[in-house]
Fold this protein.
Amino acid sequence: MISLSLAPTATWYLILAAVLFAIGTLGVLVRRNPLVMFMCIELMLNAVNLSFVTLARELNDINGQTIVFFVMVVAAAEVVVGLGIIVSIMRNRAALTTDDLAELKG
Amino acid sequence: MEFFVFVCAALMILLGAIGVIVRKHPVHAALSLVLTLFGIAVLFVAQEAHFLAAVQVIVYAGAIVVLFLFVIMLLGVDRVENLRTEPLTAQRPLAIIASLGLLGVLVAAIVNGNGILNERGSGINLPDLQNGSDANTVQLAESIFSQYVVAFEVTSVLLVIAVVGTVLLTRKAKLGAK
């Protein structure tokens, strides 16, 4: 099914994106530092962007690149808000991991 | 040639991604993230998405990673995290199984849809170097500023809301003092 010629086809790019997405998922599940978890979410977003661009080329549709542009804008806004939340939670304590965030516990 | 570029960029991406999740020091993880983002930008160029490659380098590798490093320094959480101990029992094997299962599902879907991909078009118009115009940027601009112009304007509202919200979240709250 997968051709083994030396020109990388869209399938190669998509499988690379899938591997990157799985690594990002593993990082979010395993790591305890909220900043590193955020970086892993960025990895997953980039994997999706890569597959969007691949499919845009393969299906001859520029809208795949347009949505990558919007994903980048929203990712920038998301990072700003997320890091703001992390700063406001962690400024007054020495908490290093997400295990220490138990404010809502009764 | 494209094969060589693909292999180099894939190595950059995978080494950087593995570096993000295994490095103990958050600063090292952020620098590994830069490697991954540059690899993605290289693959964008290899797939004729020139404008997005430039935006990737400027916004992600520039702004977002600098923001991460800034917050790491600001919070002083640049201490080494102990990755040896496992806080929850059997969490790591379960996480590895879950992500491998996700990878298997994704790869199965991609291989399954391989035939459909090859039936469709042959690619976006290549840049016309003779006339000195960049077809990719022109096409992207036409798409954003005609079909998706409302969404484009709404993203500006989103960015303003994000900036104002972050200022409200992070300033030292003395609402009753003044």
Remarks:
- Chain B has a mean pLDDT of 84.
